[in-house]
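Self-study notes.
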Amino acid sequence: MGIGGRKKIRIGDLLVEAGAITQEELDQALEKQKETGGRLGNVIMEMGFISQELLITVLTAQMGIDYCEIKAVKIEDDILDLVPEAMVQKYRVIPVGYDENNPNILKVAMVDPMDLNAIDDIGISTGLQVEPMFSMEDDMNEVIGKYYGNTQAMEAAEQYRKEMMAGGLTTADEEAMNEDIENSPIVLLVKQIIEGGVRQRASDIHIEPLESCVRVRYRIDGALKQVMTYDYSLLAGIVARIKIIGGMDIAEKRKPQDGRITIVVDHREFDVRVSVLPTVYGEKTVMRLTSKDGLTKPKSALGFGPEELKVFDGILSNPHGIILVTGPTGSGKSTTLYTSLSELNTEDVNIITVEDPVEANIDGINQVQVNVKADMTFAAALRSILRQDPDIIMIGEIRDGETAKIAVQAAITGHLVVSTLHTNSAASTVTRIIDMGIEPYVAGDALVGVIAQRLVRRLCNSCKAPRLADEDERKILGVTDNEEETVIYEPVGCPLCGDTGYAGRIGVYEMMPVSKELQAVIARGSTADVIEKQALSEGMLTLKMGAAKHVLNGITSLYEMKKITYETGDEY
């Protein structure tokens, strides 16, 4: 068995024995575990006492078992069928395959490979000898969700249909039943859809009625992917359930509605914004998922190169003026804003934000939510904020001339203002502000930096394939010296990245600090082209150059780069 004479050993003690953590750290972690629950290994990692790599190395060495990166394994159906689903859910285990040399040994990935009861139960149920392997809990939850989530959802859906048929329920009856019973099939189905979205890193979940069925799609890394279709008869129940948990009016089916849900999945809190829209086939629901701690990333995780980091820090170190972050919806502007606020968030400054809605809560920052019904518009909120002795003001978005005027006023009177705009490039942002009614000389004076950004998908490191770029591609990438061959990478697809070839995204930036010379160009009321020319001569890198760098470094593909550059109107 390789588990010291079948004695149950605690993971915490193993780590202390190996010298990976101290006894004090273990005691602190045990205290924390009492409060929050969860597995000890995870608690120790969350508290920063040990990295995931070290935890895996120590445990596998100490226990004499192998580590299994469960997300990277393709598990065959006949293997999955060996262990009953109830056991999989109860013990958090998943069968991986037979031992290469002995078909009587079943390899089983486990979150707790020390769980002798689990090993015995699986052994009895399968009639095979069990070889435990160690897997991380988050990976395990994701994989169990992937293999069993859909079957659970399908069973719930099937059961709901049977109940509908058997009772001959009309829609009115069914609403009268009010779907709030915690384990009724439709409740489980909706829970499964949301949890599935979280575990597959979706940013949005679409539940849409088509002519004969209901389709569920997840937006993962910016691209929609169909995950499920259900019988059309389930639509009314699903929408009613979502309206209940989102605090909406169940009876109203002809008007668009929106609501919010807070859910906890795998010990992380998520904020879900829900929008319901009547379409010709019924109500379509879209849920936007944001993790409460997901928006505040360290600077290093945003994808800045060393040069860009210098420029970014330079822009942030201005004592007053306006910093604008621009780009289309979903290009990561909020994340950049929150990161810069966290950078500036020290106890000697007063930071106030006005947002619609507040997307993430940051300690030590005063956040105000826009409320149009109560006449709390961006402009009204800003006027009051200026009387609150702020040093730094963040405006969620500059939408109109009035907000722009107050923002400029605040910047000129000695505040640092950070905000977003929907424009394509850094230079066109300046002309947009002027179009909103700000005088060019005032704009030149107030602006201290503009950052235009986009997101590109990162290639999956375990399956990307290299190839040589041809002449045209080299031209697009701006590689002119013909000496060396240029290697670029293509997406392939494997179990780790859900067969998409991509995993995660990275930012591409165009940073334009406003220098004295650039200020003079803006003050003359120049066009975007002239402004851009001046910025380029001062060393600004365009979005296209930034994306090309990522392609040449093998981080993203040419296809992703083209999506950005066509959008910004760059000519090849």
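Second protein, same conventions, sequence then structure:
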Amino acid sequence: MCAIAGILDLSAKDDVIRRMLKTMHRRGPDASGFARKEGCALLHARLVVIDPAGGNQPMELTWGGERYTLVYNGELYNTPELRRELTVLGHHFVGHSDTEVLLHGYVQWGQKVAEKCNGIFAFAVWEEKARRLFLARDRMGVKPLFYKLHEGGLLFSSEIKTILQYPTVRPELTAEGAAELLLLGPGRTPGCGIFRGVQEVKPGYCGYYCQGRLELKPYWSLKDREHTQSFEETAEQVRYLVTDAIRRQTVSDVPIGTFLSGGLDSSLISAVCAKEMESRGQRLATFSVDYVDNDKYFVPNKFQPNSDGYYIRLMQDALGTDHHWCVLSPEDLMEVLEDATYARDLPGMADVDFSLLAFCKEIKQHVTVALSGECADEIFGGYPWYRDPQVRDLDGFPWAQNTAQRCAMLSTDLQKKIDGQDYVRQRYLDTCRQSDILPGTSPLERRMKEMVNLNQQWFMQTLLDRKDRMSMYSALEVRVPFCDHRIAEYLYGVPWEFKDRGGREKGLLRYAMAQWLPEEVLWRKKSPYPKTFDPKYLELVSGRLQDVLTDKNAPLFSLISRQATESVLTEDSPWPWYGQLMRKPQTIAYLLQIDQWLRNYQVALCF
């Protein structure tokens, strides 16, 4: 994993390149470099995972009279197949990196190379003679790629902070950007970069920049199809796809491990990885996060019926892993609030981000690559809002049924400029309309396919943002096997009746993978990422927000009314702020993030 950036048709002086590379160092601490061409400068910072000697970037190749230069962030999991295919077509390779295979693949197939790749990636290729740049992002949106059309040129990068280092780019926030933060945040409209003029290449998109114009088009999306297989045949296919995806992602020239929460998804990944590592004569390292006195303060609820510790130890014993605990205090969480905001470049999921940032820092002490269970819930239908008809059938994003509350919090200026209800509703309806659904589909199946698209384009992207930024801040590469596009493609056409086997969340996945897990873990009720229940944390974030309220110049109040801020401290909302985890303490922390973000990024308001 790495960081990439580029400057097209703009001045690219040495001091500008140095400043931009400095912001990329955390993602790529092992090496950095740049290639300056006429009209183009490409920047790269490398985290070495595959082929330390042969994978340096920017990587260049001359072929058919054209000179190609590549910068790439990601991992390809079908590299051997692509290398064999390219070798037959006359290509020769110096090393064994996926970077070299990707560059030869682009030379051979052009923009079609994105369709041939199984992996997580964001990359750019400069064609020197044609004077054009190709950009592509992976299908599921695991790896980030931001850009800004600026003063007749183009800036692009893995993270927004790199673009903001360009001398004439100002961190500006429009009314629409404020609406994203306050009405949809920590989610974002697909393609929106919040800052004025900053956009993100959407998942599954690619295209060319040439002569001042950027044209991006989708090369992949979920397509509905008739499902003709029996349940047993479906389970068999799921078993193959899941195990194959996990095994492919254990390829590494550096130590690897897995996140282990004791839940279904991380336990499955750990079980398959442990078996694969054992076949190589190695022992798998597993990692879990917990909180000081969690056994004392944990309170079961609808979303989190039990804590993780018992199930983690069960899996640790069953697999015989080299297990590591990271135990955090409320003070630990508060300590990294600003770091987590900087890592994401935006306010995020509050202490759900903070804890992951601290957790990843600990994991990095032991391994450079870790596998994690994100995205199984979106694909297999694991979230409560998939299975609760009252929530599922509500009009609007199921994980944020609080638009009226959010609208009421806006400052007077913003309320005059934004119709909050319409802003949110239109984005919800647009996503539903984009869902590919076969004619004659039943109302239930139609709604479930809309739910998959809503979750994949919105909620899943928030979690992938979180996992990428919090992990790469410590130069830890995290792979997400359930994001293999083959799994998403196949499951989209599988009927809800199969996915809901036995009336259980992810029933199909449980049935298909039953042989891999102890019964208690296999049938454990879904439990989300663990958070602290320590009242000290609520006390700490509340005290910090009280300090903000006493600051008459606090930038937070240019976006949110003081009265609404005070009510967050004194009242409990009937709905979480976002998803299952962002309740009162996390909502307070989110407001603190907004205030810190406005201060530290010196955001100029343009409304």
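Instructor comment on the second fold: The chain has a mean pLDDT of 95.
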